[in-house]
Structure formats: structure tokens, C-alpha cells
Specification:
There is one protein chain. The protein has 401 residues and is of the alpha/beta class. The chain contains 17 helices and 14 strands. It has helices at 18-28, 57-62, 76-87, 100-104, 108-114, 139-145, 166-189, 199-204, 208-217, 251-261, 276-281, 283-294, 299-308, 319-324, 326-330, 372-378, 383-391; strands spanning 9-12, 32-37, 51-52, 55-56, 66-71, 91-94, 119-124, 193-198, 234-238, 243-247, 313-315, 334-339, 343-348, 395-396. Helix 1 packs across helix 7. The longest helix has 24 residues, at 166-189. The protein is elongated. 35% of the residues are buried.
């Protein structure tokens, strides 16, 4: 069975995380993604350690199923090659600063002249319009300016960055559903369109509870560590050898927790804990009481008791423990593929499981310019023309002999 985006052609001008995550998902669903890279550096994430045989492992896990065309877009011949690809593209993605694509000549208006039906997606730090449109933006800048850093971490501490590149991934995911929506519309109407999002607004769009609390009650969210702002017990608690998370956040679960997990039925009548408003008001006391019990046994002991009582809970893993967990492995979140330079390597598995063909790993990430000659041949360049383009520094292949 064909993958859902088989036959869809994507020309990808993005680099590092947000855009490449978006195009990775498109590639995994079957789209042909031609990744256009500058040279000799290529995508900025190619410089990230660790490297195996000169290739960045971080770059490799984010860019599978793609082809690399190393292209000098500032050369007239390079721009011509881009436009030839754009003419037949279904989707074009970019994450330059808003004015850069216009200076180079690869903006939506320029592309639409040769391909009116194209879907063109821009990802940037702050969007294409507004006072900050020309401002450079990275994930941490967007985390800070979206308020996320001031609601993350322990109470009373410095603003904390989320441990992953949250706004980058949010931006890539948001662009992804925008592209898919635009593509469905194109299938119905034959019309392409321009779409854009940013690290800032994509991150803001994930703060629904905080948005509701602010406009509904004027609440400005403060950092709460692992605690939930609306419910308790719903956090990580210290055990004898680590931490365990607990989600006993309704009356049934709270009752089971008190009776079957910690053996404290008297907490059900304690005025400090008898209902959710009381527990939230006395959340510090509740943490102290729970940890008095939890620190007497191991994390594994309490996870077993929580499971037996049907109260949601789990261990707090380090990342290596998470990747080695038998459930994560059973769900195929760690796979193996062969890379032509790295060799046998691990690949992130597919987070969506489906009854039909939806995603697949078909090829490893390319080395810089691996498919430059192949793509030029497809565009009907002759062998001598291709040699000239390499010699003139219009295209590049890092492994070319």
C-alpha cells in the first residue's frame, strides 16, 4: 500500500529544528523531500556533536527520508535550479528571517509566478508581520517571550527553559498541520496558498489552561515545579531511591490512593485534604505527608502499588532509562537503520501507530549534497552541464571524488 503522501514533492529550505521536524514528518508519510543546503557547512545542525565518521548523529536522526541538494542560491544558475524544482513542487518550506527570502528571490510571490498552485510555508521566530517580524528568534528566545520560562521550574527560582526545544517542535508541528490542511484544500479546489507561523505563537498556542485562567480570573501562572496548578496530588514525590509521579486527581482516585496505596484512610476525613480545594490550599502539607510515607520504600514498590490500585503513576526516569524501558521498546520507539557513513545507527521510532500504511523509514539522512547530481539529472541537465555546475561552485557534494 502506498504511503499517504507518496508522490507529493517538497522543496525544503529550512534548517536546524523547527522546519526540519516539519519536513521529517512529511517525509515519513511518503513525501519526497529535497533538502536544499548551503555549502560547505550545510544545515547548521550538521556541526552538532556527537559525530560518527564526520557525520552529526543529531542531524542524522532528524533528516531521514530526505535528499540533499547542496546549492548556491546566490548564484544565478543556483536560483534557476531552485525555480526548476519549485515549478513542480507541491510544497515549499522555509525558515529564513522574513526579508531574506525576498533578497534571494525565493519568496512566495516569486515562486507563485512559476507555480500558482504551490503551498508555501514559512516558519520564523516571530512571524512575517508585526513589530518583531525582523527580529531573530531561537527556541529559548520564544520560550522567554511566550511566558513559558516564567511558569517552568521550582517556585521562587530563576526562569527555567523547558528541557527540550519546545517552541521549535511546536512551530514545526503547527506548520505541519497547516500544510496538511492546505494540501487537503488544494485537492478539493486546485488552489495553493501561503501559510506561516512562528516559534512565539506556536508556543503560546499550547498554553490553553494558562490562557483560560488569565482571562477568566486574572491569574498569572507562576512556576510550580512538578505540581499541577488545578489539581493535587498530581506531581512527582520523593521515594527512598528516586521519584514517582502520582495522578490521584479526582475523588475516586484520591480515595484509592489513601486506602490502597499509602494506607492512610484517615486523610479522607482530614479537613486539610477532604476535598480538592482543601488539598490545593494545603498542598505543601500534603507533599510532606505523602513523602513521609513514600521515602520508606523504593520507586518500584510504589509504582507497583499505584498500578494495583488503578491510580495513575510512574517512575521518573533519566533519559537513558526511558529509552531502555521495555514498554518504550515494545512500542518500537527505538529503531535501527544503516547510514552510508555512520554505519548501523539508532533512529527515533514512529509515535503514531496505525492499521494502514501511514509512515515508514525508507532511507537514512543524506550526507551534504549526496543527491545533487541525481536531482540535476532529473531536471534534464546533461553530464557536461553537471560537471560545469560543480566546477563553478553552484552545486556541491561533500563525498564527490
Amino acid at each position: 500500500m502506498p504511503l499517504p503522501l507518496e508522490g507529493v514533492k517538497v522543496v525544503d529550505l529550512t534548517a536546524v529544528m523547527a522546519g526540519p521536524y516539519c519536513t521529517l514528518m512529511l517525509a515519513d508519510m511518503g513525501a519526497e523531500v529535497i533538502k536544499i543546503e548551503n555549502f560547505p557547512e550545510g544545515d547548521g545542525s550538521r556541526r552538532f556533536d556527537p559525530k560518527v565518521n564526520g557525520e552529526s548523529y543529531c542531524f542524522a536522526v532528524l533528516n531521514r527520508n530526505k535528499k540533499s541538494l547542496a546549492l548556491n542560491l546566490t548564484a544565478a544558475a543556483g536560483l534557476d535550479i531552485f525555480m526548476r524544482l519549485a515549478r513542480e513542487a507541491d510544497v515549499i518550506t522555509e525558515n529564513f528571517r522574513p526579508d531574506v527570502k525576498h533578497k534571494i528571490g525565493v519568496d512566495y510571490e516569486a515562486v507563485r509566478k512559476v507555480n500558482p498552485e504551490v503551498i508555501y510555508a514559512s516558519m520564523s521566530g516571530f512571524g512575517q508581520t508585526g513589530p518583531y517580524a525582523k527580529k531573530g528568534g531561537f527556541d529559548i528566545i520564544a520560550q522567554g517571550m511566550s511566558g513559558i520560562m516564567t511558569m517552568t521550574g521550582p517556585p521562587g527560582g530563576r526562569p527555567n527553559k523547558v528541557g527540550i526545544a519546545m517552541n521549535d517542535i511546536a512551530c514545526g508541528s503547527t506548520a505541519l498541520y497547516g500544510i496538511l490542511g492546505a494540501y487537503i484544500r488544494k485537492l478539493k479546489t486546485g488552489k495553493g496558498q501561503y501559510i506561516e507561523t512562528s516559534l512565539l505563537e506556536a508556543g503560546l498556542a499550547w498554553t490553553f489552561w494558562e490562557f483560560g485562567a488569565f482571562f477568566g480570573g486574572g491569574e498569572i501562572p507562576a512556576p510550580t515545579g512538578t505540581r499541577h496548578r488545578r489539581s493535587t496530588p498530581y506531581q512527582a514525590y520523593r521515594t527512598r531511591d528516586g521519584y514517582v509521579t502520582v495522578g490521584a486527581n479526582n475523588d475516586k482516585l484520591w480515595t484509592n490512593f489513601c486506602r490502597q496505596v499509602v494506607g492512610k484512610p484517615e486523610w479522607l476525613a482530614d479537613p486539610r485534604f477532604r476535598d480538592l480545594p482543601a488539598r490545593l490550599k494545603n498542598i505543601d502539607d500534603l507533599e510532606v505527608e505523602i513523602e513521609k510515607v513514600f521515602t520508606t520504600e523504593t520507586t518500584a514498590h510504589w509504582v507497583d502499588k499505584l498500578d494495583r490500585a488503578a491510580v495513575p503513576g510512574g517512575p521518573v526516569f533519566t533519559y537513558d532509562q526511558a529509552l531502555a524501558d521495555p514498554h518504550v521498546r515494545a512500542r518500537a520507539m527505538v529503531e535501527e537503520i544503516d547510514h552510508p557513513l555512520i554505519g548501523r545507527m539508532k533512529a527515533m521510532g514512529m509515535p503514531v501507530k496505525s492499521s494502514g500504511e501511514l509512515q515508514s523509514i525508507r532511507s537514512p539522512a543524506p550526507w551534504l549534497g549526496q543527491h545533487s547530481a541525481e536531482i540535476l539529472r532529473r531536471l534534464d541537465f546533461s553530464a557536461s552541464d553537471i560537471e560545469d555546475l560543480f566546477r563553478q561552485g553552484v552545486v556541491y557534494d561533500r563525498q564527490r571524488k
